[in-house]
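so my prof wants the structure for this chain in the C-alpha cells format not the other one, which i didnt know existed until like an hour ago. anyway here's the sequence
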Amino acid sequence: MLILVMIEGLVCILMAAPFALGLAALGGMLGYAIQAGYWLNKDTPVMLSIILLFTPAFQGAERCVKPPAETFEVRTAIEVHAPPEKVWNQVVAFAELAPPKELLFRAGIAYPIRAEISGHGVGAVRHCIFSTGPFTEPIEVWDEPRLLRFGVTANPAPLNELSPYGNIQPPHLHGYFVSKQGQFLLRALPGGRTRLEGTTWYQHTMWPGAYWHLWSDYIIHRIHLRVLEHMRATAEASID
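here's what i got, hopefully its the right format
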C-alpha cells in the first residue's frame, strides 16, 4: 500500500512539475538578484522584511478572495454503425461496463460503471454510477432520438485516494471539480450510421485554471470515450 501511495504522490508531482518549475525558476532569479547586490546593502533587510510579511498576507487574501470559477467544455464524438433510434436506447441508460484496463482509472481516477434512469422525458432523473458514487442528472431536454441534455445536481468524489489509513476524505476531493451539465447529441449519417457526440460542462477551482484544465479535459475525454465506445458496441450488436 505504501508503494501505491508513493506512486500516487509521484503522479501528482509530475502533473504539477511544469508550473512548479516555473515558480522555482522565478524564486531562483529573485534570490540571485538579492545576493548579487542589485539593491543597496542598507535596503536589503528592509526588502526582505517586506517580502516575509507580504507572503502570509497574500496567502490569506488568496483564500478569502476567490475568483469566480470558469466553466470548461469538453466534446468527444465517435461514429456508430447503427441508426439513431438504436443508439438512443443506450444514451438514456446503459448496462454495466467491463472493468477498466486504462492505467488512469486503475490508479484511482473515478470512472463510469453504468447509467440508470427513473421516469421518461423532461423531469426524469438519470443516475450515472461511477466508481466513487453516482452523478444525479435531471433531464432538461428529451428530443428523441436526437438530443438528451441534463443538469447535474450531485457529484461524487473525482478519485479514490490510496492511503494506508483507510477511507480518508481530504478537502480536495469535494468542491474543487464540479460537473454542471452534460448532453448526448445524435446526428443521422448516410448508410444507417450515427454521429454520437458527448459533451460535459464543468468547473474546477484549481489555480491556474488555464493549466489544470488541460489535465481535467484529458481525463473527461477518456471518460467520454469509455462510455461512447460501450454505447457503440452495444448499439451495433443490437442490429447484427
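also thought this was worth mentioning. Residues 2-64 form one domain.
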